[in-house]
Design brief:
Radius of gyration: 34 Å
CATH architecture of one domain: Beta Barrel
Low-confidence stretches: none
Strand order of the largest sheet: 1-2-3-4-5-6-7-8
Number of strands: 10
Length: 184
């Protein structure tokens, strides 16, 4: 067995590596050298002008003190109706298809953003105010849908009644209304 073949290959690779290194070094920019003959009589520190501050994003639109929004989500099995009621910094939503999907969600409404969840945390709704509509995503179980809910005026929206000064949702009335709408 001869050793000459591998040694020639090793020498060729080393020569190629040295050649690439030299080409790379010749392409690098050289740092400017200080001129030893120049002499400065003053030493003034030059500070760059500060960059102008980045423009701040426009403030998010806020929800009205009281507002109702209704949207329809087409699905393979029908249509899910999403109703969102905002009252101050709190929001309530009801999602129903009149058959198998029904979910009540509660949460916050602040700075044009609603973040709602069901009591058992299996459903949630995240939305933001875009123009005068709420745009977002509804999750029920492992399924999710994007939606757009436009503002509505009574009689549309969730119905509330006062019981000893506290606002309560009339859930039976909402269920009947959704079942009638789904049957139509």
């Amino acid at each position: 067995m001869t050793i000459r073949g591998p040694l020639v290959t090793l020498g060729a690779v080393a020569a190629l590596g040295v050649g690439i290194l030299l080409v790379n070094m010749s392409k690098e920019e050289k740092a400017p050298q200080a001129n030893p003959y120049s002499h400065s009589t003053t030493t003034a520190a030059v500070t760059p002008a500060p960059a102008p501050p980045a423009p701040s994003p426009p403030p998010r639109p806020a929800f009205p003190a009281k507002a109702d929004y209704v949207g329809k989500i087409p699905t393979a099995n029908g249509t899910i109706t999403v109703e969102i009621t905002v009252h101050g910094d709190k929001a309530v939503a009801y999602a129903c298809d009149g058959n198998t999907i029904e979910s009540w969600l509660r949460g916050s409404a602040a700075n044009g953003v609603v973040s709602l969840a069901s009591k058992d945390k299996t459903s949630r709704l995240e939305g933001r105010l875009e123009g005068n509509a709420v745009v977002g995503t509804l999750w029920i179980g492992k399924k999710k849908w994007d939606f757009k809910a436009d503002p509505t005026q009574p009689p549309a929206g969730l119905y509330v009644y006062d019981e000893a000064g506290a606002q309560q949702l009339d859930r039976r009335r909402e269920r009947r209304r959704h079942r009638r709408a789904a049957a139509a």
